[in-house]
Amino acid sequence: MLPGLLHQLSLGVRGLRQRLSFSLLALISLGLGIGASVAIYAVVDAVLLQPLPYTEAERLVQVEEVDAEGRKMPLAEPNLDDLRARHRGLVALAEYSGGVTTVSSANRAVRAGAYLVGPEFLQVLQVQPVIGSDLGTAGTEPGALVSHRYWKETLGASANLSGRSVSAFGLNLPIVGVMPESFQFPEGAQLWMDARAIPPSESRSAHNWSVIARLRDGVDMAQAQEDARAIGAALRREHGSDVDLAAFALTDLRTAMVGSVSAALWVLLAGVGFLLLIAATNVTNLFLAQALARRQELAVRDALGAGSARIAAQFVVESVLLGMAGMLLGLLAAHLALTVFAQIAVDILPRAQDLRLSGRVIGVTTLGTLLISTVIGLIAARSGHQVIAVALKEGGRSSSAGRATTRVRQGLVVAQGALTVVLLVAAGLLARSVMGLLQQDPGFEPDGALTVNLTLEDQGGVEGDARVVAQLDTLISKLAAIPG
Description:
This protein has 484 residues and is α+β, with helices and mostly antiparallel strands. It is built from twelve helices and twelve strands. It folds into two domains: 225 residues, no CATH class; 200 residues, no CATH class.
């Protein structure tokens, strides 16, 4: 069996080399279709299908306040404290608040994601620093954790954290630990500072804290949600107009992180799926045209005893060879696209740091390519069998032989046209939406307007803020004096 397969592969490679123009055209069509499909599927897989990289991530939830109109909000600190004390279905709750700001350490200031986090932050996510210790609990001094990237780039990857400190939000805290290289929560975070370093808030309407929590073992989402609603309603009764909330809402963490982009990614995947079908239809038409052009060769091989099965196998082998070559080309294109996209989408796409060609993506791509290639080969083989029959019966007259493939090719052209129309309509609607956004009045004259990003060292406190304002005023005055 193996020698026969190797012989078929040898014949397939030789035949494709002899028809180089056909092979290159089919290869490019499949490569582009597969590349686009793989790139988008890899995004869908990384963002929507892969589990979150935390222990028992399915037990992680996001907690929000909900007002009487159903609007969701971050939590006020006293409401969080009451929820933590009263909810028996949550084993730990952790607050966090922050964003991109100026982070200073080792006489170097950079713009980085920095967050104030509660003492149970790492307990909720069930992760520990690879160097140093956790932020600690009551009775210990507040400290800060840094990301593995920040530790390498700013601190020189020194294992000795003694005497190291970091500044952000007007705070200067000792660095007590370095997080694992793979850890990143929230997206883009490089610094986590102990929230105990700032005075507690007593306002029940100051919605400053995003909150994550971990469900206790044996507690399901529905039960935890019902308990949270009841606690929110009780706080409403107890504090009246001092609170904005009518209830607490729980959402599983993955939905909270990626729910905003889920629909768009599935639509994109459907779009490139149509594109792949168009490419496959294109290649099928090319194979049918080749079958018609090779009618004399096929008829001679059949007459010499090659048999329908062997000729059909040759069509399948050629289509699979082209499919595998197209897959390799598509995987290369997808890898390049993902590398670029991961850099530019880091601020707009959740889990962008996870974008890659995983083993599952490559496996699905391989199986899909084999299936599509086999179907193309079988369609071409069926048409080739009809061409042989007509060629032998009619003496090889092209008009009669061509009739055998006409109906199949016409059907494929109709299908290809229908798929193209669907893509064109979708593209037109998207272009219309983009044009509508571009034509909206931004409220100012954008022509000639420039933006400048500055990284300033955090000087801390009110006096430090005043110095920063004075520096900016001086800079603006100097820029205004430049002609033009």
